[in-house]
Specification:
Keywords: Repeat. This protein is an all-alpha fold. It has 27 helices and no strands. The chain is globular. The protein binds one DNA strand of 10 nucleotides through α6, α8, α10, α12 and α14.
Length: about 475
Amino acid sequence: MTMKTKLYHHLQSTTTKNPQWNTLLREAANKSLFTKALSLYLHMLRSGASPNAFTFPFAIKSCAALSLPITGKQLHCHVFKTGCLLEPFVQTSLISMYGKCSLIDNARKLFDENPQSRKLTVCYNSLLSGYALNSRVKDVVVLFCEMRELGVEINGVTMLGLVQPCGIPGNLGLGMCVHGFCVKFGLDMDSSVGNCLLTMYVKSGEIDCGRKLFDEMPRKGLITWNAMINGYAQNGLANNVLELYKEMESKGFCPDPLTLVGVLSSCAHLGALSVGKEVERKMEGFGFSSNPFLNNALVNMYARCGNLKKARDIFDGMPVKSVVSWTAIIGGYGMHGQGEVAVELFDEMIRGGIKPDGTAFVSVLSACSHAGLTNKGLDYFGVMERKYGLRPGAEHYSCMVDLLGRAGRLNEARELIESMQVRADGALWGALLGACKIHRNVELAELAFEQSQVKHSKNKKDFSGHWLQEPNNNSSR
DNA sequence: CTAGGGTTAG
């Protein structure tokens, strides 16, 4: 091949093949085939074609979805070299990628480096959603105020960034204020904003507010129904879940995996095995059988309903087991008196390289407690903070009090309570009271009873929302 | 830029 033909081939590949690569990349990313999208991008580079402003966003999006910050940073370099950084489509995808990879400061830097950012709603929106994802509530509010001061248009996506972080406990006051803003901007009936507000209320435990909003929403979509169903499920209102699920089906909506997750978890709580089995058949019928969320919920459902064999079969058949899958099966063995199996599984999980979280420790500690494996439980409790850096919460102390209490080691239980750094809750006093009853310790029982009667407030710290001024009718929109 | 999900003692 002569120099001339080489050059010709090169030119042809960069000019005529570029649109083809872009199309393939876009299609892969839009189908959520992110690994494929990234490998297409690499193929493209190797073939000599040069990426452009229509290439980068899809590659960057794929990094964000796969949580690959290092590849993301490399893409940032490529963007810089090709001079596409000022393209809003490219810039917003980079900001979003940094936000999703928890590199929010990089996102901010990118936003600040481009003076054009402060004129565009989409740039603000991408940074807002990054702050929201990283629970940086104050930054969200400050940025929103800045938008209003500069007169940048506010749209539904802006409000999503504002509403999302209000679902975390303690932010409900701000959330209600934000809801007011949505109404004033006429965006509360925007379906995504409405769904987001609904989720915010149910996550804050304000299930009645959520239901009111749900009933008022004029155009309820599948996501709306799912948000309400899962809201009930997360608040332990399992009967409401089944009722609403029935209503949803009667209205002709077809459930998707998210619907069925909430329904299955409620079946688990109610011990409603027959409904659970019906859901399992539906899963198979709709082709959701390999959904890991649904399989975790299914393992939990069978375990809680007492069918440990079925739970174990599903668990064993799962190709990828997360800490949630392990927690479900460990808890299942634990609550049915097979603490030895639960402990073995817990150790097997650790040997397999899965890091236990606070919930996994709750399930193994309670398994030890039920099976009388007192010292084993004490070992786990010790290792929890020392080895895994997990600070025990009230729920862990409750398990420990239960564990020590059942073993008759009431003084140790008492000492443990006295040494606690977290506030005791009703469950802890209940566990102590139960132990006192078994071991006939009247004096300690009196104390436990007294304490268990104290109302344990849910620690709802309200933001006053005074950072936000009332919106003027003449600004924005 | 873009709304909804699984596991947790008593």
